[in-house]
Design goal:
Helix content is about 40%, strand content about 25%. The chain has about 240 residues and is an alpha/beta fold. α1 runs parallel beside α3. The termini are close together.
Length: about 240
């Protein structure tokens, strides 16, 4: 089981948004690169970085900062936010990002998404961000009108390497993972599935752990919980290692 500490970048700072709302922002650090190193020092095996400015604007906004984070770390980085063309994808991969998370393009431009998967095999994943069962795009501000069931077969056929599933209703709310939805998705997915939204405590990690042993669930992204201290990342990593 992998825990992915989240470093969400907005205006050059490390922030967390509640349910993805730009007006519900908490700043946790003015130095995202230092925060990334901190989570690596706490035992993280991967880092989950989101360019929130890029997600909202549709173009990279923190490229040099993200390049620096990749250069500083010895653990791999997965990145999402504002990756909406092949040139941007290539630039990030060349800058040291291990794998890319595609959201809006995957739902709105299926041909482009398929080209990305073909151009960078094994390195392109999709972010499926659901609110009330409907998928959101453009930094969660636009309703696609689609459900996971509508899009998943096409995304898998295109060559999706991994799937991140966010329950927006739980994101930043620290209310636990939607295990039923995650288990259903994992049953449809031969590729790794990562949970996002709701991981708040060690009990949530323990509740999710069995799914990582019996299904394609790979782990979970955690953000607000490790910043506010309701989840001790180092203790959680030790618990997982002990299993």
């Amino acid at each position: 089981m992998i825990l992915f500490p989240a470093v969400d970048i907005k205006d050059g700072r490390c922030v967390r948004l509640r349910q993805g709302r730009a007006d519900a922002e908490t700043v946790f650090s003015d130095d995202p690169a230092a925060m990334a190193r901190h989570w690596q020092d706490q035992g993280a095996k991967w880092l989950h970085v989101i360019d929130l400015d890029g997600a909202f604007s549709g173009m990279p906004a923190n490229f040099e900062l993200i390049r620096r984070i990749c250069a500083d770390l010895s653990v791999p980085v997965q990145l999402g936010g504002g990756i909406r063309d092949e040139a941007t994808a290539k630039a990030y991969l060349d800058a040291g990002v291990q794998r890319l998370i595609i959201g809006t393009v995957a739902l709105e431009e299926p041909d482009l998404y398929a080209r990305l998967c073909a151009a960078f095999p094994g390195r392109i994943g999709v972010s499926l961000d659901a609110e009330g069962g409907r998928l959101k795009t453009k930094g969660w501000v636009a309703d696609s009108g689609l459900t996971v069931d509508d899009v998943l077969p096409r995304l898998l056929d295109a060559g999706t390497a991994f799937v991140i599933y966010t329950d927006i209703d739980r994101d930043g709310m620290q209310t636990g993972v939607n295990l039923a939805a995650l288990e259903k998705l994992a049953g449809m997915c031969p590729v790794p599935v990562i949970a996002a939204g709701g991981v708040a405590t060690l009990e949530d990690v323990r509740a999710l752990y069995p799914l990582t042993q019996t299904s394609s669930v790979e782990g979970a992204i955690t953000g607000r919980a490790i910043y506010t201290g309701t989840l001790d990342l180092h203790a959680a990593m030790e618990w997982i290692a002990a299993q």
